[in-house]
């Protein structure tokens, strides 16, 4: 699979895919003339990297996780630990954003009630 094909399959730009490779988040095989060759399994891996980023995991931590992943099954306990720690962070962020949303909804309700009373 070419970089263009995986870009379409993951909805992640070719630039970002090259960046992930440069940072060591993904390891891509090359053909005899140096073109990247992605495998089917890279699609879900790239999507997972993006989800980790989207949920606030730092690139240095994603890189650590990636290195562990490429290290094989013996690294599963450490990867599990990292994901549990990140899950806790995501839940804390979710709680924080819920409070922000509640505050925003209260302010909207205040304005709507104030406007309709006039």
Write the layout of secondary structure elements.
Elements: H1 3-10, H2 14-22, E1 29-30, E2 36-37, H3 40-54, H4 59-70, H5 76-116
Antiparallel strand pairs: 1-2
Count the E strands: 2
Helical content, roughly? over 70%
Task: Give the assembly state of these chains.
Answer: single chain
Which stretches are poorly predicted, pLDDT < 50 over at least 5 residues?
none
Decide which structural class fits the backbone. Answer: mainly alpha
Shape: elongated
How would you describe the overall organization of this protein?
This protein is mostly helical. The protein has one domain: Multidrug-efflux Transporter Regulator, Chain: A, Domain 2, CATH 1.10.1660. It is built from five helices and two strands; from the N terminus they run H-H-E-E-H-H-H. A two-stranded antiparallel ribbon has the order 1-2. Helix 4 (59-70) runs antiparallel to helix 5. The protein starts with a helix and ends with a helix. The mean pLDDT is 95.
């Amino acid at each position: 699979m070419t970089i263009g094909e995986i870009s379409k399959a993951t909805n992640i730009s070719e630039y970002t895919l090259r960046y992930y490779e440069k940072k060591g988040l993904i390891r891509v095989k090359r053909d005899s003339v140096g073109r990247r060759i992605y495998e089917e399994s890279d699609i879900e891996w790239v999507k997972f990297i993006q989800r980790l980023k989207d949920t606030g995991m730092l690139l240095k931590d994603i890189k650590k996780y990636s290195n562990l992943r490429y290290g094989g099954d013996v690294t599963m306990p450490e990867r599990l630990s990292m994901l549990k720690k990140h899950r806790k962070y995501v839940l804390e962020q979710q709680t924080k954003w819920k409070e922000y949303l509640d505050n925003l909804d209260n302010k909207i309700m205040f304005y709507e009630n104030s406007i309709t009373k006039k």
